[in-house]
């Protein structure tokens, strides 16, 4: 079975600062990797996904993530955050032959002025 | 176009009561998923449908939980004899097919069992 660890439950940053949200996963087989964002009282929205190919993945709203197979990590980064980026961010994995998403516990990103 | 919709958005019930939660997937999406998100946790898989049949119900916590999708579109998650531990946000997602890796999520139904 696969599992996901999001190392930080909360990350406070100032507006226009860079941010990195960390995600590590464990799986005995190849997986697909995802980052979702959840704004207050809204559903999950896909930010980006890694299926195969280039290990650097670009997503919406200026976010990007890098897949590192040797470290089993998929950290999310943004070079300059905005107040509107304040939300809960979830890392998730899906085994190729199994269509369930396994989520981490989430990281609350709070962007302060 | 319209996204995944879920009704009701909030449901408050008493311990021991029966509840039904509804999910309307994106039109044409054949795969439908249910997840449960408890406070402070990430969503956890419950069940998924491919068409009308439940392809994997391994995440349902016990036999009080049941889900149907009789016509391959709308799905209903049914919980019998609710317990306080069932309080959570229930999320529904759909995708064009089970082979399509992205799942599109609805806003969820917040269930509170008193």
Low-pLDDT residue intervals, each spanning 5 or more residues of chain A = none
Give the structural class of chain A. mainly beta
pLDDT < 50 stretches of chain B: none
Describe the sheet with the most strands of chain B: 7 strands, mixed
**Helix content, binned percent of chain B:** under 10%
Number of helices of chain B: 0
Order of helices and strands of chain B: EEEEEEEEEEE
Q: Name the beta content range of chain A.
A: over 45%
| Main beta sheet of chain A | 6 strands, mixed
Helices and strands of chain A, in N-to-C order? EEEEEEEEEEEE
Through-space gap between termini of chain B: 37 Å
Number of strands of chain A: 12
Q: Which structural class do you get from the secondary structure elements of chain B?
A: mainly beta
Mean pLDDT of chain A: 92
- What proportion of the residues of chain B form beta strands (DSSP E)? over 45%
Helix content of chain A: under 10%
Shape of chain B: globular
Q: Could you explain the architecture of this structure?
A:
The complex is a heterodimer of chains A (113) and B (114). Chain A has 113 residues and is mainly β. Chain A has no helices and 12 strands. In chain A, the strands form 3 sheets. In chain A, strands 2, 5, 6, 10, 11 and 12 form a 6-stranded mixed β-sheet that branches. A 4-stranded antiparallel β-sheet of chain A has the order 3-9-8-7, with no helix packed on it. A two-stranded antiparallel ribbon of chain A has the order 1-4. The radius of gyration of chain A is 13 Å and the shape is globular. Chain A starts with a strand and ends with a strand. Chain B is an all-beta fold and 114 residues long. Chain B has no helices and 11 strands. Chain B has strands at residues 5-7, 10-13, 19-24, 31-37, 44-50, 53-56, 65-68, 75-79, 88-95, 104-105, 109-113. In chain B, strands 2, 4, 5, 6, 9, 10 and 11 form a 7-stranded mixed β-sheet that branches. In chain B, strands 1-3-8-7 form a 4-stranded antiparallel β-sheet, with no helix packed on it. Chain B starts with a strand and ends with a strand. In chain B, 36% of the residues are buried. Chains A and B meet through β6, β10 and β11 of A and β4, β5 and β10 of B.
């Amino acid at each position: 079975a696969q599992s996901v660890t999001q190392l930080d439950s909360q990350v406070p940053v100032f507006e226009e600062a860079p941010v990195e949200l960390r995600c590590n996963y464990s799986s005995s087989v190849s997986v697909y990797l995802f980052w979702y964002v959840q704004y207050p009282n809204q559903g999950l929205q896909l930010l980006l996904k890694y299926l195969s190919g280039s290990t650097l993945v670009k997503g919406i709203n200026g976010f990007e993530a890098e897949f590192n197979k040797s470290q089993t990590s998929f950290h999310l980064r943004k070079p300059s955050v905005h107040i509107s980026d304040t939300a809960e961010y979830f890392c998730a994995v899906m085994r190729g032959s199994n269509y369930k998403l396994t989520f981490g516990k989430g990281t609350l990103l709070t962007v302060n002025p | 176009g319209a996204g995944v919709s879920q009704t009701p958005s909030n449901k408050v019930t008493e311990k021991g009561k029966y509840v039904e939660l509804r999910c309307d997937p994106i039109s044409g999406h054949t795969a439908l998923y249910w997840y449960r998100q408890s406070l402070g946790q990430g969503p956890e898989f419950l069940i998924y449908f491919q068409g009308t049949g439940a392809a994997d119900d391994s995440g349902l916590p016990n036999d009080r939980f049941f889900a149907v999708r009789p016509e391959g579109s709308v799905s209903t998650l049914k919980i019998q004899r609710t317990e306080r531990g069932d309080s959570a946000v229930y999320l529904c997602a759909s995708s064009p097919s089970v082979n399509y890796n992205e799942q599109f999520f609805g806003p969820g139904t917040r269930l509170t069992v008193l």
